[in-house]
Specification:
This is Regulatory protein PocR. With 104 residues, the protein is an all-alpha fold. The chain contains six helices and no strands. Helices cover 65% and strands 0% of the residues.
Amino acid sequence: YIDAHLSDDLRLEDVASHVYLSPYYFSKLFKKYQGIGFNAWVNRQRMVSARELLCHSDWSIASIARNLGFSQTSYFCKVFRQTYQVTPQAYRQQINENSHPPSL
């Protein structure tokens, strides 16, 4: 469900309701089994998708951000940089220069 809705405004409360759990209990179970909190996991999944789109599409950074559920491109860029220590623009440039994705 989460992967299929990465472009949506995913809220823990909505996902918990979808699986008929209280938000508190869902949050505890999620962290127990995934090892990280719900929001961090969603952002991680979005960043994996972002890398794929940067490698295999010609979409603008803003389009990628919107497609992955970020309302602001600047926040998308901030999360990407925190995750991979490089901006989305620099990542794409490295891909174009090397013709294969850099190892992160």
